[in-house]
Amino acid sequence: MVVEADGGARGNPGPAGFGAVVREAATDEILLERSGALGTATNNVAEYSGLIAGLRAAAELGATHVAVRMDSKLVVEQMSGRWQIKNPGLRPLAAEAAGLVSRFAEVSFEWIPRERNRAADALANRAMDEAAGKPVPDIGSVRDVGSASDREPQPEESTPTASWAPPSLEDATRLILVRHGETPLTAQGRYSGRGDVPLTDEGEAQAMAAGARVAGISRDVTAVVCSPLARCVRTAELIAAELGGATVSVLPDLIECDFGQWEGMTFAEVQQRWPVELAAWLKSTSVAPPGGESFQAVAKRVRGVVATLLQTYPSATVVVVSHVSPIKLILRDALAAGDAFLHRLFLDPAGVSVVDTWPDGGIAVRSVNETAHLR
């Protein structure tokens, strides 16, 4: 399905509204329309509100693959992870949108010119007119309605205009993310992707300590899931034992990134042999190591895992045992962070992170890389 979304404010900030339509990709038929007034808000807040409304509508229709089209360069670039979210007031909205994105198998973002986004723009303006008490003609479907927007493209606002408080934890699905314990390659600082190396004795001790920490967070764990590689399976088994013998399920898409020809090498060795390729890899998540897998590819399969877990275990606690790359990507999406986050965050062996997600798409990252249990 295709989601077209927009939002605007008459003044910045000023009276604001949003609109969104969901189309059948093959026929261009409009399946659902969403719109609403926001009171006084800014253009960017309204645009994010339109995106959230459109994603919710697509979810209602049971969409699995969604193409989002917006004329907001800011929202498209931020949701694609290419631009940082500098305004604290937009971060909760971006996090809510990212939570909704994680529920689909695949979501793409495309910038389109204003004239191609007339339907969503018309809905946003209709919502603003209705809120202002202006007479609104009965125009039926917005498919053929021209743009009535009086907006000019705006930079990201500097004044926070939105706030968000997490609802009751009773409704949240909690993912406790645990990196596997130490392996021989971990201890040597080498790229460890698809190679099936076991835990060291220290790694086993770390996994048991992580199990104790998980039990301290919650003993009411519904499921323990893990990557198919031995270092994760063993870590998950030791955590499950600490929880009283919970069943461990293997999810193939939680496997580590395939580092191709870099497998088993240190960063310095890779930099010496593949300086150009390494620089390109560090610059873009679309670039894969020679013979390996890009972070964009990893993100796609990991988002599918998260979406499945949220659907399968609503309002429950799930322990997810995986590797550096999948866990970083889950945290990046939860925090609505940019791609630079991936190379700035360090995850220790057996480090623990906690993410709560609510049915309406709200997200709270409770902790990142807890390691006190390892000392």
Automatic annotation (TrEMBL):
CDD domains: HP_PGM_like, RNase_HI_like. Residues 129-166 are annotated as: Disordered. It comes from the Bacteria. The active site is at 180 (tele-phosphohistidine intermediate), 256 (proton donor/acceptor), 256 (proton donor/acceptor). Pfam families: His_Phos_1 (PF00300), RVT_3 (PF13456). SUPFAM superfamilies: Phosphoglycerate mutase-like, Ribonuclease H-like. Residues 1-137 form the RNase H type-1 domain. InterPro entries: His_Pase_superF_clade-1, His_PPase_superfam, PGM_Phosphatase, RNaseH-like_sf, RNaseH/PGlycerate_mutase, RNaseH_domain, RNaseH_sf. Substrate binds at residue 231. GO terms for molecular function: nucleic acid binding; phosphatase activity; RNA-DNA hybrid ribonuclease activity. GO terms for cellular component: cytoplasm. This is Putative phosphoglycerate mutase. It comes from Krasilnikovia cinnamomea.
